[in-house]
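Methods — Computational structure assignment.
A single polypeptide chain was analysed. Its primary sequence is given first, followed by the predicted tertiary structure written as structure tokens.
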Amino acid sequence: MENNDSKSINYDFLLSDYSQQVFSKLDYALKDGVHLQRNGSDPELYTYLERYEHELKPYYQKLFGVRLEKKGEGDEQYFFLDYHSVERSGIPEIHKHNLKNEHIIIGLIIYKIIFFDGNIELNSIKKLKQKITLDYEEYEQGLVKLIAKSSDSARVNEDDIQIDKEVEGALRQFEKLGWLYRKQDHFELLASFQRLLYVYEDVIKNIDEIIARYQ
């Protein structure tokens, strides 16, 4: 039986020369969970999203059952597919890169260090790892236990090297999601890193207390 909902979607935008050049790349990126912004790795995709936002939102909602979301203001705006807010969607599971719990924990710590503690100019991965180690030296055992509780791959008796590995793994995942830019030791948090605040604001504010409970 034909899906009548699909008739109401305007596909004309897909016939443009612009779409022929950009759409397939955009579609793969969004379905892989990439967050797209003006200052990201591919600003052309962001420009395309801005131009066809009103056509693309019903396209993904009606054909795949997911929302194309836009967050932020001005130059800090970013787009992503919010397929985690629905139980089922038409996007294959292979595309859904769910963040590991331990990476979320590291992300919350990074957010607190950069934004809540006022280290906006921190852009060295080496110094970031050192700061996490030093700032949480008192709660090192609690942090390791919390990571271990969240991940089957971490062991409670690991030292700072294990924490460094978790930080490195989290940064690689954030880069794939389009949350940060990195080149060698340099990194920059992008606008879409703010999505952590939208989802975990209360947890970020209390992350130190949460870690301390595992001491």
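Note: Residues 1-6 have pLDDT under 50 and may be disordered.
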